Amino acid sequence: MEKKDFEPVIVAFCCWWCAYGAADLAGSSKMDYPTNIRIVRVPCSGRVDPLHILHAFKEGADGVMVAGCLKDGGCHYIDGNMKAEKRVLQLKKQLESVGFGGDRLEIYFMSAGEPDKFVKAATEFYERIKKLGPNPLKKEV
Amino acid sequence: MRIATLGLTGCSGCHVALVSLHEKLLELLKNAELVHSYILTDEKEIPENIDLGIVEGSVRTTHNEEKVKELRDKTKILVALGSCSCFGGVQGLGNVYNVETLLTKVYKQTVTTVEGLIPTKDLPEVFKVKPVTEVVKVDYMIPGCPPEVESIAEVLTAIVQGKTPTLPAKNVCDECPRERRNIPPKELKRLHTGNPDPKICLLEQGYLCMGPATRSGCGAKCPKANMPCEGCYGPCEKAWDQGLAMLDALTAMMGKVLPNFKMETHPGMFYRYTYASSILSKLSKMVKKR
Fold first, then answer.
1. ipTM confidence score
2. I want to staple A11 with a disulfide (CB 3.0 to 4.6 A). Which of A56, B83, B176, B231 is the partner?
3. Is the separation of the CB atoms in A121 and A79 below 8 Å?
Protein backbone atom coordinates (compact mmCIF):
# COMPACT_ATOMS: atom_id res chain seq x y z
CA MET A 1 0.00 0.00 0.00
CA GLU A 2 1.28 3.47 -0.88
CA LYS A 3 1.95 5.56 2.15
CA LYS A 4 0.17 8.48 0.51
CA ASP A 5 -3.12 6.59 0.14
CA PHE A 6 -2.89 5.04 3.55
CA GLU A 7 -5.98 5.64 5.66
CA PRO A 8 -5.50 4.23 9.15
CA VAL A 9 -8.07 2.21 11.07
CA ILE A 10 -8.23 3.56 14.61
CA VAL A 11 -10.18 1.92 17.40
CA ALA A 12 -11.18 4.26 20.22
CA PHE A 13 -12.37 2.82 23.51
CA CYS A 14 -14.50 5.63 24.95
CA CYS A 15 -15.99 5.60 28.42
CA TRP A 16 -19.73 6.03 28.56
CA TRP A 17 -19.75 8.92 31.02
CA CYS A 18 -17.18 11.31 29.60
CA ALA A 19 -15.35 10.53 26.36
CA TYR A 20 -18.39 9.05 24.63
CA GLY A 21 -20.41 12.05 25.76
CA ALA A 22 -17.73 14.35 24.39
CA ALA A 23 -17.75 12.50 21.06
CA ASP A 24 -21.54 12.69 20.99
CA LEU A 25 -21.48 16.42 21.70
CA ALA A 26 -18.81 16.91 19.03
CA GLY A 27 -21.18 15.27 16.57
CA SER A 28 -24.26 17.25 17.58
CA SER A 29 -22.35 20.54 17.55
CA LYS A 30 -21.20 19.66 14.00
CA MET A 31 -17.48 19.64 14.74
CA ASP A 32 -15.19 17.81 12.31
CA TYR A 33 -12.92 14.94 13.26
CA PRO A 34 -11.33 12.16 11.16
CA THR A 35 -13.73 9.46 10.07
CA ASN A 36 -11.06 6.82 10.66
CA ILE A 37 -11.96 6.67 14.34
CA ARG A 38 -14.12 3.67 15.20
CA ILE A 39 -15.64 4.26 18.61
CA VAL A 40 -16.29 1.37 20.99
CA ARG A 41 -18.35 2.44 23.96
CA VAL A 42 -17.31 0.90 27.28
CA PRO A 43 -18.88 1.45 30.71
CA CYS A 44 -15.62 2.85 32.08
CA SER A 45 -12.10 3.20 30.70
CA GLY A 46 -11.06 0.95 33.60
CA ARG A 47 -12.96 -1.84 31.84
CA VAL A 48 -10.50 -1.84 28.95
CA ASP A 49 -8.37 -4.90 29.44
CA PRO A 50 -4.89 -5.25 27.83
CA LEU A 51 -6.46 -8.28 26.11
CA HIS A 52 -8.99 -6.03 24.34
CA ILE A 53 -6.28 -3.67 23.10
CA LEU A 54 -4.02 -6.43 21.80
CA HIS A 55 -6.99 -8.14 20.18
CA ALA A 56 -7.61 -4.96 18.18
CA PHE A 57 -3.97 -4.88 17.07
CA LYS A 58 -4.02 -8.58 16.21
CA GLU A 59 -7.03 -8.04 13.97
CA GLY A 60 -5.24 -5.26 12.11
CA ALA A 61 -6.08 -1.95 13.81
CA ASP A 62 -3.39 0.66 13.07
CA GLY A 63 -3.89 2.51 16.32
CA VAL A 64 -5.85 2.18 19.53
CA MET A 65 -6.85 5.11 21.69
CA VAL A 66 -8.40 4.83 25.12
CA ALA A 67 -10.36 7.86 26.30
CA GLY A 68 -11.60 8.30 29.83
CA CYS A 69 -12.76 10.93 32.28
CA LEU A 70 -10.61 13.74 33.65
CA LYS A 71 -7.95 12.80 36.18
CA ASP A 72 -8.21 13.57 39.89
CA GLY A 73 -11.74 12.58 40.70
CA GLY A 74 -13.40 12.95 37.30
CA CYS A 75 -14.16 9.25 36.97
CA HIS A 76 -17.72 8.15 37.55
CA TYR A 77 -16.38 5.00 39.21
CA ILE A 78 -13.80 6.81 41.41
CA ASP A 79 -10.51 5.58 39.92
CA GLY A 80 -11.24 3.57 36.77
CA ASN A 81 -9.42 6.07 34.55
CA MET A 82 -6.28 5.90 36.72
CA LYS A 83 -6.25 2.11 36.41
CA ALA A 84 -6.67 2.46 32.66
CA GLU A 85 -3.75 4.88 32.54
CA LYS A 86 -1.44 2.48 34.38
CA ARG A 87 -2.45 -0.37 32.09
CA VAL A 88 -1.94 1.67 28.95
CA LEU A 89 1.45 3.05 30.03
CA GLN A 90 2.69 -0.43 30.95
CA LEU A 91 1.36 -1.90 27.72
CA LYS A 92 3.08 0.85 25.70
CA LYS A 93 6.40 -0.23 27.22
CA GLN A 94 5.67 -3.85 26.34
CA LEU A 95 4.69 -3.08 22.77
CA GLU A 96 7.89 -1.05 22.43
CA SER A 97 9.97 -3.96 23.75
CA VAL A 98 8.61 -6.50 21.25
CA GLY A 99 9.29 -4.12 18.35
CA PHE A 100 5.68 -3.26 17.55
CA GLY A 101 5.92 0.38 18.66
CA GLY A 102 4.32 1.89 21.75
CA ASP A 103 3.21 5.01 19.87
CA ARG A 104 0.31 3.16 18.31
CA LEU A 105 -1.45 3.20 21.67
CA GLU A 106 -2.44 6.31 23.61
CA ILE A 107 -4.69 7.39 26.44
CA TYR A 108 -6.58 10.70 26.62
CA PHE A 109 -8.64 12.31 29.34
CA MET A 110 -11.60 14.62 28.86
CA SER A 111 -14.94 15.51 30.39
CA ALA A 112 -18.33 15.11 28.71
CA GLY A 113 -18.53 18.86 28.12
CA GLU A 114 -15.28 19.12 26.16
CA PRO A 115 -15.99 18.09 22.56
CA ASP A 116 -13.08 20.27 21.39
CA LYS A 117 -10.71 18.16 23.48
CA PHE A 118 -12.04 14.99 21.87
CA VAL A 119 -11.71 16.46 18.39
CA LYS A 120 -8.16 17.61 19.15
CA ALA A 121 -7.16 14.19 20.54
CA ALA A 122 -8.72 12.36 17.58
CA THR A 123 -7.04 14.60 15.00
CA GLU A 124 -3.68 14.48 16.74
CA PHE A 125 -3.78 10.69 17.07
CA TYR A 126 -4.92 10.28 13.46
CA GLU A 127 -2.00 12.36 12.21
CA ARG A 128 0.46 10.40 14.35
CA ILE A 129 -0.77 7.03 13.06
CA LYS A 130 -0.83 8.29 9.48
CA LYS A 131 2.84 9.20 9.88
CA LEU A 132 3.67 5.79 11.44
CA GLY A 133 2.17 3.87 8.52
CA PRO A 134 0.13 0.67 8.49
CA ASN A 135 0.15 -1.92 11.25
CA PRO A 136 2.81 -4.52 10.34
CA LEU A 137 0.34 -7.29 11.20
CA LYS A 138 -2.36 -6.02 8.88
CA LYS A 139 -3.77 -8.77 6.72
CA GLU A 140 -3.44 -8.18 3.00
CA VAL A 141 -6.78 -7.20 1.52
CA MET B 1 -8.49 -49.35 24.01
CA ARG B 2 -4.92 -48.87 22.79
CA ILE B 3 -2.94 -46.09 24.45
CA ALA B 4 0.34 -44.57 23.24
CA THR B 5 2.40 -41.87 24.95
CA LEU B 6 5.00 -39.64 23.36
CA GLY B 7 7.67 -37.42 24.89
CA LEU B 8 8.96 -34.37 23.01
CA THR B 9 11.16 -31.54 24.33
CA GLY B 10 10.52 -31.69 28.05
CA CYS B 11 11.74 -33.23 31.29
CA SER B 12 9.65 -36.48 31.34
CA GLY B 13 8.11 -35.20 34.57
CA CYS B 14 4.61 -35.61 33.19
CA HIS B 15 5.33 -39.26 32.42
CA VAL B 16 6.48 -39.66 36.02
CA ALA B 17 3.23 -38.01 37.14
CA LEU B 18 1.37 -40.46 34.90
CA VAL B 19 3.12 -43.39 36.57
CA SER B 20 2.36 -41.90 40.01
CA LEU B 21 -1.25 -42.86 39.41
CA HIS B 22 -0.21 -46.14 41.13
CA GLU B 23 -3.29 -48.33 41.73
CA LYS B 24 -5.45 -46.04 39.62
CA LEU B 25 -3.19 -46.83 36.68
CA LEU B 26 -4.05 -50.53 37.07
CA GLU B 27 -7.72 -49.67 37.10
CA LEU B 28 -7.25 -47.51 34.03
CA LEU B 29 -5.33 -50.23 32.20
CA LYS B 30 -7.97 -52.86 32.94
CA ASN B 31 -9.77 -52.01 29.71
CA ALA B 32 -6.75 -50.54 27.97
CA GLU B 33 -3.39 -51.55 26.65
CA LEU B 34 -0.22 -49.45 26.62
CA VAL B 35 1.25 -50.03 23.17
CA HIS B 36 3.90 -47.33 22.92
CA SER B 37 5.61 -45.31 25.63
CA TYR B 38 9.20 -44.25 25.55
CA ILE B 39 9.91 -44.73 29.24
CA LEU B 40 7.64 -47.70 29.95
CA THR B 41 7.74 -49.99 26.93
CA ASP B 42 10.47 -51.10 24.55
CA GLU B 43 8.58 -50.21 21.37
CA LYS B 44 10.60 -47.98 19.02
CA GLU B 45 8.08 -47.11 16.30
CA ILE B 46 4.57 -45.78 16.86
CA PRO B 47 2.14 -48.62 15.97
CA GLU B 48 -1.06 -48.14 13.93
CA ASN B 49 -4.67 -47.84 15.18
CA ILE B 50 -4.25 -46.03 18.47
CA ASP B 51 -7.35 -44.93 20.36
CA LEU B 52 -5.77 -42.53 22.86
CA GLY B 53 -2.51 -40.65 22.30
CA ILE B 54 -0.90 -38.73 25.15
CA VAL B 55 1.83 -36.23 24.28
CA GLU B 56 4.22 -34.51 26.66
CA GLY B 57 6.67 -31.70 25.90
CA SER B 58 6.88 -28.89 23.37
CA VAL B 59 7.92 -28.92 19.72
CA ARG B 60 11.52 -27.68 19.42
CA THR B 61 13.04 -29.66 16.52
CA THR B 62 11.97 -31.03 13.15
CA HIS B 63 12.11 -34.50 14.72
CA ASN B 64 9.58 -33.46 17.38
CA GLU B 65 7.29 -32.06 14.72
CA GLU B 66 7.46 -35.20 12.59
CA LYS B 67 6.77 -37.48 15.57
CA VAL B 68 3.77 -35.57 16.84
CA LYS B 69 2.26 -35.37 13.35
CA GLU B 70 2.74 -39.12 12.98
CA LEU B 71 1.00 -39.74 16.30
CA ARG B 72 -1.85 -37.43 15.27
CA ASP B 73 -2.35 -39.41 12.06
CA LYS B 74 -2.48 -42.72 13.90
CA THR B 75 -4.60 -41.79 16.91
CA LYS B 76 -8.27 -41.02 17.39
CA ILE B 77 -8.05 -38.84 20.53
CA LEU B 78 -4.95 -36.78 21.29
CA VAL B 79 -4.36 -35.40 24.79
CA ALA B 80 -1.73 -32.74 25.52
CA LEU B 81 -0.29 -33.56 28.93
CA GLY B 82 1.48 -30.83 30.86
CA SER B 83 2.17 -27.14 30.30
CA CYS B 84 4.92 -27.74 27.72
CA SER B 85 2.58 -29.33 25.23
CA CYS B 86 -0.30 -26.98 26.08
CA PHE B 87 1.53 -23.61 26.19
CA GLY B 88 5.24 -24.20 25.44
CA GLY B 89 6.47 -24.54 29.00
CA VAL B 90 9.54 -23.10 30.68
CA GLN B 91 11.73 -23.62 27.61
CA GLY B 92 9.37 -21.29 25.76
CA LEU B 93 11.17 -18.44 27.53
CA GLY B 94 14.06 -19.20 25.17
CA ASN B 95 11.94 -17.59 22.44
CA VAL B 96 12.99 -14.20 23.83
CA TYR B 97 16.29 -14.82 21.99
CA ASN B 98 16.81 -16.25 18.54
CA VAL B 99 18.07 -19.79 18.05
CA GLU B 100 21.61 -18.82 16.92
CA THR B 101 22.17 -16.77 20.07
CA LEU B 102 21.02 -19.67 22.24
CA LEU B 103 23.21 -22.26 20.47
CA THR B 104 26.26 -19.99 20.63
CA LYS B 105 25.66 -19.36 24.31
CA VAL B 106 25.26 -23.04 25.15
CA TYR B 107 28.05 -24.53 23.03
CA LYS B 108 30.62 -21.73 22.89
CA GLN B 109 30.28 -19.15 25.61
CA THR B 110 29.78 -21.06 28.85
CA VAL B 111 32.52 -20.60 31.45
CA THR B 112 33.86 -24.14 31.24
CA THR B 113 33.95 -24.33 27.44
CA VAL B 114 37.50 -24.12 26.06
CA GLU B 115 36.93 -24.45 22.34
CA GLY B 116 33.28 -24.70 21.48
CA LEU B 117 31.68 -26.28 18.44
CA ILE B 118 28.00 -26.21 17.55
CA PRO B 119 27.04 -29.79 16.53
CA THR B 120 25.35 -29.96 13.13
CA LYS B 121 26.03 -33.41 11.65
CA ASP B 122 23.00 -35.75 11.31
CA LEU B 123 20.91 -33.72 13.71
CA PRO B 124 17.37 -32.42 13.34
CA GLU B 125 17.00 -28.69 12.84
CA VAL B 126 16.28 -26.61 15.95
CA PHE B 127 13.70 -23.81 15.81
CA LYS B 128 11.78 -21.64 18.25
CA VAL B 129 9.62 -23.48 20.77
CA LYS B 130 6.05 -24.17 19.67
CA PRO B 131 3.39 -25.76 21.86
CA VAL B 132 1.88 -28.97 20.48
CA THR B 133 -1.48 -27.21 20.29
CA GLU B 134 -0.08 -24.98 17.52
CA VAL B 135 1.31 -27.83 15.43
CA VAL B 136 -1.54 -30.35 15.41
CA LYS B 137 -5.16 -30.45 16.54
CA VAL B 138 -5.37 -31.45 20.19
CA ASP B 139 -8.62 -32.85 21.59
CA TYR B 140 -8.03 -32.34 25.31
CA MET B 141 -5.49 -30.44 27.38
CA ILE B 142 -4.28 -31.28 30.89
CA PRO B 143 -2.15 -28.29 31.97
CA GLY B 144 0.19 -28.22 34.95
CA CYS B 145 3.88 -28.65 35.61
CA PRO B 146 3.39 -31.51 36.24
CA PRO B 147 -0.42 -31.88 36.26
CA GLU B 148 -1.95 -33.07 39.50
CA VAL B 149 -2.23 -36.86 39.62
CA GLU B 150 -5.94 -36.58 40.50
CA SER B 151 -6.73 -34.48 37.46
CA ILE B 152 -4.80 -36.80 35.14
CA ALA B 153 -6.74 -39.77 36.56
CA GLU B 154 -10.04 -37.92 36.23
CA VAL B 155 -9.49 -36.89 32.61
CA LEU B 156 -8.06 -40.22 31.45
CA THR B 157 -10.78 -42.25 33.18
CA ALA B 158 -13.44 -40.08 31.58
CA ILE B 159 -11.88 -40.56 28.13
CA VAL B 160 -11.52 -44.33 28.56
CA GLN B 161 -15.18 -44.52 29.61
CA GLY B 162 -16.18 -42.47 26.60
CA LYS B 163 -17.24 -39.34 28.51
CA THR B 164 -16.16 -35.71 27.95
CA PRO B 165 -13.68 -34.56 30.60
CA THR B 166 -13.82 -31.01 31.97
CA LEU B 167 -11.24 -28.75 33.58
CA PRO B 168 -11.94 -26.27 36.39
CA ALA B 169 -12.59 -22.80 34.92
CA LYS B 170 -11.85 -20.65 37.99
CA ASN B 171 -8.51 -19.26 39.16
CA VAL B 172 -6.08 -20.28 41.89
CA CYS B 173 -7.26 -17.51 44.26
CA ASP B 174 -10.59 -19.30 44.31
CA GLU B 175 -8.99 -22.29 46.02
CA CYS B 176 -6.47 -20.34 48.11
CA PRO B 177 -7.25 -20.18 51.84
CA ARG B 178 -5.27 -16.95 52.45
CA GLU B 179 -7.09 -13.89 53.72
CA ARG B 180 -7.57 -10.82 51.48
CA ARG B 181 -7.86 -7.48 53.22
CA ASN B 182 -7.90 -5.17 50.16
CA ILE B 183 -4.83 -3.29 51.33
CA PRO B 184 -2.43 -2.70 48.41
CA PRO B 185 1.25 -3.44 49.09
CA LYS B 186 3.81 -0.65 49.39
CA GLU B 187 6.55 -2.36 47.40
CA LEU B 188 7.31 -5.47 45.40
CA LYS B 189 9.40 -8.02 47.30
CA ARG B 190 11.51 -11.01 46.32
CA LEU B 191 11.17 -14.29 48.19
CA HIS B 192 14.72 -14.28 49.54
CA THR B 193 14.27 -10.93 51.25
CA GLY B 194 11.97 -12.19 53.98
CA ASN B 195 9.41 -14.67 55.19
CA PRO B 196 5.84 -14.10 53.99
CA ASP B 197 3.04 -14.13 56.55
CA PRO B 198 1.36 -17.55 56.07
CA LYS B 199 -2.21 -16.25 56.57
CA ILE B 200 -2.44 -13.12 54.38
CA CYS B 201 -2.66 -12.94 50.58
CA LEU B 202 0.83 -13.02 49.08
CA LEU B 203 0.09 -10.28 46.54
CA GLU B 204 -1.02 -7.96 49.33
CA GLN B 205 2.31 -8.56 51.02
CA GLY B 206 4.12 -7.59 47.81
CA TYR B 207 5.17 -11.03 46.58
CA LEU B 208 4.32 -11.54 42.93
CA CYS B 209 1.82 -14.41 43.02
CA MET B 210 0.30 -15.45 39.69
CA GLY B 211 -2.87 -16.77 41.35
CA PRO B 212 -5.33 -14.25 39.83
CA ALA B 213 -4.37 -15.17 36.27
CA THR B 214 -3.87 -18.91 36.66
CA ARG B 215 -6.34 -21.75 36.17
CA SER B 216 -7.23 -23.68 39.30
CA GLY B 217 -7.03 -27.43 39.66
CA CYS B 218 -3.94 -27.75 41.83
CA GLY B 219 -5.73 -26.87 45.07
CA ALA B 220 -3.46 -23.81 45.54
CA LYS B 221 -0.55 -26.00 46.62
CA CYS B 222 2.18 -23.36 46.36
CA PRO B 223 0.38 -20.56 48.26
CA LYS B 224 -0.51 -23.12 50.96
CA ALA B 225 3.22 -23.91 51.29
CA ASN B 226 4.08 -20.19 51.60
CA MET B 227 5.33 -19.94 48.01
CA PRO B 228 3.85 -17.54 45.43
CA CYS B 229 2.01 -19.22 42.55
CA GLU B 230 4.17 -19.48 39.43
CA GLY B 231 1.28 -19.90 37.03
CA CYS B 232 2.02 -23.42 35.78
CA TYR B 233 -1.64 -24.19 35.01
CA GLY B 234 -1.74 -21.48 32.36
CA PRO B 235 -4.46 -18.88 31.70
CA CYS B 236 -8.08 -19.30 32.79
CA GLU B 237 -10.89 -20.35 30.48
CA LYS B 238 -11.79 -17.07 28.74
CA ALA B 239 -8.48 -15.17 29.06
CA TRP B 240 -6.27 -16.20 26.18
CA ASP B 241 -3.07 -14.62 27.47
CA GLN B 242 -1.80 -15.15 31.00
CA GLY B 243 0.64 -12.24 31.23
CA LEU B 244 -1.88 -9.66 30.06
CA ALA B 245 -4.50 -11.01 32.44
CA MET B 246 -1.97 -10.70 35.26
CA LEU B 247 -1.09 -7.15 34.20
CA ASP B 248 -4.78 -6.35 34.36
CA ALA B 249 -5.04 -7.79 37.87
CA LEU B 250 -1.88 -6.06 39.07
CA THR B 251 -2.81 -2.56 37.93
CA ALA B 252 -6.11 -2.89 39.71
CA MET B 253 -4.45 -3.56 43.06
CA MET B 254 -0.94 -2.20 43.05
CA GLY B 255 -1.28 1.56 43.33
CA LYS B 256 2.17 3.03 43.20
CA VAL B 257 4.22 -0.09 42.61
CA LEU B 258 3.83 -0.69 38.93
CA PRO B 259 5.74 2.27 37.46
CA ASN B 260 8.91 0.87 39.06
CA PHE B 261 8.28 -2.58 37.66
CA LYS B 262 11.13 -3.41 35.30
CA MET B 263 10.36 -4.71 31.84
CA GLU B 264 13.31 -7.12 31.80
CA THR B 265 11.67 -9.38 34.35
CA HIS B 266 8.33 -9.37 32.60
CA PRO B 267 8.43 -12.59 30.52
CA GLY B 268 10.08 -14.54 33.33
CA MET B 269 7.54 -13.45 35.90
CA PHE B 270 4.27 -13.27 33.96
CA TYR B 271 4.88 -15.84 31.24
CA ARG B 272 7.01 -18.43 33.00
CA TYR B 273 5.10 -21.29 31.36
CA THR B 274 3.20 -19.60 28.55
CA TYR B 275 5.65 -17.31 26.71
CA ALA B 276 5.76 -19.49 23.57
CA SER B 277 2.00 -19.22 23.12
CA SER B 278 1.63 -15.61 24.34
CA ILE B 279 0.29 -12.88 22.09
CA LEU B 280 3.37 -10.71 22.76
CA SER B 281 5.79 -13.36 21.46
CA LYS B 282 3.57 -13.83 18.42
CA LEU B 283 3.52 -10.08 17.78
CA SER B 284 7.31 -9.87 17.93
CA LYS B 285 7.65 -12.91 15.65
CA MET B 286 5.25 -11.47 13.07
CA VAL B 287 6.85 -8.03 13.19
CA LYS B 288 10.33 -9.47 12.64
CA LYS B 289 9.16 -11.68 9.76
CA ARG B 290 8.15 -8.71 7.60
1. 0.81
2. A56
3. no
